[in-house]
Amino acid sequence: MLTREANLRLAQVGPGTPGGNLLRRYWYPVATEAELQQEPVLAVKLLGENLALYRSPNGELGLVAERCPHRGASMVYGIPEEGGLRCPYHGWKFSDEGTCLEQPAEPEDSTFKHRVRIPAYPVQSMGGLIWAYLGPAPAPLLPKFDLFVREDITREIGITVLPCNWVQMMENSLDPVHLEYLHGMLTNYTLKKEGKPPSAVVKHHLKIGFDVWEHGISKRRLLEGQPEDSDDWTRGHPILFPNILAVGDESCPEFQIRVPMDDTTTRYYWYNTHPLAPGAEVQKTSDIPIWENPYQHENGRLVVETVNGQDMMAFLTQGAISLREAERLGTSDKGVILFRSVMFEQMEKVARGEDPLGVIRDPAKDVMISIPRENKAHYVVGGFIAADDENMPAAIKKEFTGTIR
């Protein structure tokens, strides 16, 4: 368990907090290209800050504080122009670097605008997502992880905003054994209540392992019946520090990106990919389909009929911020303990003025970063788990919809 103080240190993401200072050393997706195409100015929230994301008529991106420093009107309703964003209230115009360019109601010879700034942050587009960096200059490079830059795949992006802290999601990713019960036995129990036969093949974990590597932590598992040289054990699948889970095999790889909006709200992206069909044109990033991944039924009950829903139930029922001071951890929780340890270690590195784990500044290391994955994953059929045996029926493979965590 953690003390209450340590728990808050782990969970808080706002400016000036140890966790917030660490998280501000990384880039985060704050919107999709498709969303910004529909509306050129969007309200976004990241690491406790309310911001206005915009695209100017000539295609330039900008990200500034939502509140205009003049009278406090929202820049989300501002007018995007070449060179910046104009406040809708009195027309003050700000550049993408936060400098005040125009104050229409002030005298022409006034120097007032030179003494006014608005918080502004670097922003880039990659893989159909709009990425932002809220940390100190100079900004590190935006990591070109393979799925964001490959041209031989098609993509679709699921989005959910969850009312809980982001760390609960990452701890779940460092907890292999929940597969047996959350995605195995709960799945079969849910089907039984509906009068349906079981679909999940529940296999016990013989051992689990974790390795800290250049970009994060690799999670490995060995299940009953698997040989020691299986991909699950020799490769596993990695967590890209601090907030991305890489899952899926080489045929349908996926990223899950957990973006801390504030201490108790997280924007969750499912970045799903499939092989590009032979002869098909390369997918335009602005054409990537966007879908909503619900976590709740109309009657208010949480979704547990799908793998994604099961995970979200586990996140949400811990509370807005998990009470780690009341938990009792066992030996199977060593991945969770490792993640917390790495988080605290990286906070200390940032406090010493050092770059934390995974930050890239050398362009030679940021051409396209290939992520190691299993050659074969556990298949999810109709939202449920099926065995990954070599003799899996063709009908099941055809209905493949995702992978387990």
User: What is the rounded Rg?
Assistant: 23 Å
List the uncertain runs: 378-404
**CATH first level of the largest domain:** Alpha Beta
CATH architecture of the largest domain: Alpha-Beta Complex
How helical, in percent, are the residues?
10-25%
CATH-derived topology of the largest domain: Naphthalene 1,2-dioxygenase Alpha Subunit, Chain A, domain 1
Mean pLDDT: 92
Give the arrangement of secondary structure elements:
Layout: H1 4-11, H2 18-23, E1 27-32, H3 33-38, E2 41-46, E3 49-55, E4 61-65, E5 79-81, E6 84-86, E7 93-94, E8 100-102, E9 123-126, E10 129-133, H4 146-149, E11 153-162, H5 167-173, H6 178-193, E12 205-213, E13 216-223, H7 231-234, E14 237-240, E15 244-247, E16 254-262, E17 265-275, E18 290-292, H8 307-316, H9 334-351, E19 379-381, E20 384-385, H10 394-398, E21 400-403
Parallel strand pairs: 11-18
Antiparallel strand pairs: 1-10, 2-3, 3-4, 5-6, 6-7, 7-8, 9-10, 11-17, 12-13, 13-14, 14-15, 15-16, 16-17, 19-20, 19-21
Keywords:
405 residues; alpha+beta; Rieske Iron-sulfur Protein; Naphthalene 1,2-dioxygenase Alpha Subunit, Chain A, domain 1; 8-stranded mixed β-sheet; 4-stranded antiparallel β-sheet; 21 strands; 21% helix; globular; disordered C terminus
Please tell me about this protein's structure.
With 405 residues, the protein is α+β, with helices and mostly antiparallel strands. The protein has 2 domains: 27-133, Rieske [2Fe-2S] iron-sulphur domain (Rieske Iron-sulfur Protein, 3-layer Sandwich); 146-403, Naphthalene 1,2-dioxygenase Alpha Subunit, Chain A, domain 1, CATH 3.90.380. It is 21% helix and 27% strand. It contains 10 helices and 21 strands. The strands form 5 sheets. It has an 8-stranded mixed β-sheet. Strand 5 and strand 6 (84-86) form a beta hairpin. Helix 5 (167-173) packs across helix 9 (334-351) and helix 6 (178-193) packs across helix 8. The radius of gyration is 23 Å and the shape is globular.
